[in-house]
Amino acid sequence: MGGNPIQFDYTVLATVLSFLLLVWLLSKKAWGPLMKMMEERRSNIESMLAQAENERQQAEQIKREYQEEMRKARQEAQEVIAKATKVSEARSAEILAESHVEAEKIKKSALVDIERERDRAISEVKAQVADLSVLVAEKIIRQKLDMKGQGQLIEQFIQEVGDMQ
């Protein structure tokens, strides 16, 4: 082995030149399309993120609208319940007032009936007293009683009237 101490290796030079040629070729032919593809992907991801944010905002808006509708529905339901309660209370008071009026009518009617029955009973008693008076007068006339006999007859008449009551 006795050769030249400084020996130039062409393989290293060929490798370096091949590498540089490959880098140059890649930068001209592959790097541009690769960067374009990466840029398209980046913009596609940004677009999807923007769309997702937009959809999230729309979902938030829909949620707020739904909550507002639910609040309105609850409020309307409470108003309907309150109105129904007032109507039922008013109807209850009306029914109670009508029942009081009807009770008063029945009471007055009963009092009128009682008064009429009392008047009829008094009329009957008066008629019976008149009939008894006529009978006593007949007996007095027929018997032509003396004063003592008339006294007994009057006492008997008073007793009979007292028994009828």
Automatic annotation (TrEMBL):
Keywords: ATP synthesis, Cell membrane, CF(0), Coiled coil, Hydrogen ion transport, Ion transport, Membrane, Transmembrane, Transmembrane helix, Transport. GO terms for cellular component: endomembrane system; plasma membrane; proton-transporting ATP synthase complex. Residues 35-90 form a coiled coil. It is a single-pass membrane protein. The chain crosses the membrane at residues 6-27. It is found in: Cell membrane; Endomembrane system. HAMAP family: ATP_synth_b_bprime. Belongs to the ATPase B chain family. This is ATP synthase subunit b. It comes from Desulfosporosinus metallidurans. The lineage of its organism: Bacteria, Bacillati, Bacillota, Clostridia, Eubacteriales.
